[in-house]
Amino acid sequence: MAASVMAGAAPMRRLRCHRSVWRPLEHLRSCLWPQLGSGTLRSFASGGGTFRCGSCGQPYAKWQGQCSHCAAWGAIAAVTSASAPYRQPNMAISAKKKAKHGGRASTSWTQSPLDVQGGVQRMNAVNAETFAERLALPDRELNWVLGGGLVMGSLTLVAGNPGVGKSTLALQIANMLSSSGDAVRDVLYVSGEESVLQVKMRATRLGVVSDNLFVASETNIDAIIDMIERRNPLEDDDNDTRPFAVVVIDSVQTVFAEDVPSAAGTVNQVKECTLRLLRLAKRRNVPVMLIGHVTKSGEIAGPKVLEHIVDTVVQLEGDAQSTRRFLRCQKNRFGNTSEVGVFTMADNGLQPLKNPLMAFVSAFGDEFNDENEIDGTSLTIAMEGSRPIPVEIQALSNRTYFHVDARSGNSGAVSSRVRAVGVSYDKLQLLLAVLEKRARVPFQNRSVFVNIAEGYSIQEPAADLALAVALASAVTSRPVIKRAMFLGEIALSGHLRPVKMLESRLVAAQKIGLDSCIIPTVHCADTRKNLPTKCSKNMQIIEAATVLDALKVALRPLPSSDSNAVDAYELQEY
């Protein structure tokens, strides 16, 4: 055995550690290694590099004497490399994968450009014809949401709550693309949550019988990419196999990369797998559709960068107790955003609604006739992107005598209760305060309940006036005028503010057979000039400056014989 670790070093001595355990100096020779305290350590501290074992390739965040992976001494050295935000964290595993997959090791998307041609090009010289191609879908609602179909080379994310129908929608889209049109397309459906037999059972129930639809059950991202690359070669590759036209992956939270040291569904796994699929979609010019999960708060599961990476984000929404489904577009690099498609869940999957204009309102002949007048119900038209959606608002109010206050939890106090379904609680509280202050509508010692028909949710301020009319009608027991629509944002002063896309809302109101519409006072000259051309003579447009003026027109007087209407009164200014 050598008498010293280094030339000129003192003979081996036995040192006492802090736990009174004698150890030979041979185990502490890493402390005498020449690299300790050298410039390589200082370069890492300044952000210039990292450390890696020269024997096995194991990376380290800081220098140490012995490699914990291969037990080699003195093999860890500093490695200076270019900055890469998504580097492979384990070269040893990557080397094993390279031998396993025939010499092809997985690489991060940042190590090679997305464009096959690469380099700097003149904008006018870029050929955009191939990229602008869309795969049109036979479903009218899907084309409406996606802006005309799937763009070649795009990455689309479809998210939604458990059981809302994400996998059903993905399987239907895959079947549509593989069996529609004159062109023959092969579509690959990769499931990480079901076996091939289970996917076949669900496809049989939905009536998916296309011969060009291929299915696989795989969660390894490199194996999935291998499937696609074998069928989708580059231009210089020799392969006579017909490539996949579309790839559907269900879901992105179940796939994983072996060279990322974390479980599937974690932040790093979701980010790295999505980036590799993005690179695949751009280089091979194949549209890829991902199915994504959501958290218990309704947000898309995974890192926020997931929504930034993909080209299109659509979310499938719906009530578990209802068959109605809404497909909302939240992001679209190739079309309009905020579009919505309306579907109904049937035995054979999601089916588009034939008449979305009348999907959320009751039949006029049932509730709005002279023999059966109902208070607390009003109509408005909400805009989802460029699509008008008629919405029915229902309100109910009664006296509160003794109950437990839901806000404070104190019993015995006579206070109002407020419950809302489909409306923001803060918005409802604001409208109640404005109505009580500016229109003298008493809500003290009353319980107020608001519901939006068919499980719809109102987000825009244009429905403020319709909410106020329904609330005032419920408190005063005065019915709302028949076949009327109410549009307007209510300010804290009680004045009505204009709404956007007024002409489109009026045209939709005319199509569903409404007779009158109460809107804020129009001050824009161009809008006032276009109103007669947008609406027919049979539709009356009533302008109101304040919420009090609108309520005086919207609420019908009670018959004098109605002695039970103890809540009836004349609206007065404060």
From TrEMBL:
Q: Which GO terms describe its molecular function?
A: ATP binding; ATP-dependent DNA damage sensor activity; ATP-dependent peptidase activity; damaged DNA binding; metal ion binding; serine-type endopeptidase activity
Q: Which UniProt keywords apply?
A: ATP-binding, DNA damage, DNA repair, DNA-binding, Hydrolase, Metal-binding, Nucleotide-binding, Stress response
Please name the InterPro entries in this protein's record.
Answer: AAA+_ATPase, DNA_repair_RadA, Lon_proteolytic, P-loop_NTPase, RecA_ATP-bd, Ribosomal_Su5_D2-typ_SF, Ribsml_uS5_D2-typ_fold_subgr
Some GO term, biological process aspect, for this entry: which one?
recombinational repair
Q: Which residues form the RecA family profile domain?
A: 131-294
Protein name according to UniProt: RecA family profile 1 domain-containing protein
